[in-house]
Design a protein that fits this description.
Blueprint: H1 8-21, H2 24-34, H3 37-46, H4 49-62, H5 68-74, H6 80-93, H7 100-114, H8 118-131, H9 136-148, H10 152-165, H11 170-182, H12 186-199, H13 204-219
Length: 220
């Protein structure tokens, strides 16, 4: 497996074909047969614009959590298309840590949060954390559940732990900021929002929050 520089246009052709037919399965199969994850990671940061877009999208489809840092860096690419693909892809990678069983458990926790069964989500997330304390997304999902139950201090602590384990987790930084807002600590909230925007410069809603908090703190 692998790819040389001379075959880079193939990746672009596969990407353009996907944009035309939206056949994700065919794109994934073709890329997986011809490119290693390591090659895709290299192309995502060094290729031409369309090559970078294609590589980043492919990483989001086929790579595991080991590509987290690569997509984290790609969120600072000078091409907005690359940045958006990196943001979408990295969210997928966060759920691909751990074993098959642990990932399946995480998906159940996510569904519990979506269906607002927060107590059940906390219970299962706590079990997963005991089993895999290095699984950052387990902490993040428990933080989400805590937040919706009004347990803002517990939620902020879990957001902090998420970022300790995964320093590219802009979602946890935003979540922690909202916890501090609920606890009426604007200074800490502003610090967390600034951390989030450093990780993902395209968080326009966060920029609005930062501007608002900066003006509020200046006026107080």
């Amino acid at each position: 497996m692998g790819s040389s520089t001379s075959s880079n246009p193939l990746l672009v052709r596969l990407y353009v074909a996907y944009l035309d037919n939206e056949d994700a399965a065919a794109f994934i199969k073709a890329v997986s047969q011809r490119y290693t994850t390591a090659t895709l990671q290299r192309l995502s940061e060094r290729g031409q614009r369309l090559t970078r877009r294609a590589a980043v999208m492919a990483i989001g489809f086929v790579a595991g959590y080991e590509a987290n840092a690569t997509l984290g860096r790609c969120m600072h690419d000078n091409d907005r298309g690359v940045r958006l693909l990196a943001e979408n892809g990295i969210r997928q990678l966060w759920c691909r840590d751990g074993s098959d069983v642990q990932r399946q458990t995480l998906q159940i926790i996510v569904r519990l949060n979506v269906s607002e069964q927060f107590d059940e989500a906390i219970q299962l997330a706590s079990q997963l954390i005991d089993d895999a304390p290095w699984f950052a997304e387990a902490w993040n999902q428990r933080a989400i559940a805590y937040f919706h139950l009004g347990r803002y201090d517990d939620s902020a602590n879990d957001c902090h732990q998420t970022l300790e384990l995964n320093p590219y987790h802009f979602g946890a930084a935003v979540g922690m900021a909202h916890c501090y807002l609920e606890m009426h600590d604007a200074v800490a909230a502003l610090e967390c929002f600034r951390r989030a925007i450093k990780l993902n410069p395209d968080l326009e809603g966060v920029r609005v929050q930062i501007d608002y908090l900066e003006r509020s703190l200046e006026e107080s």
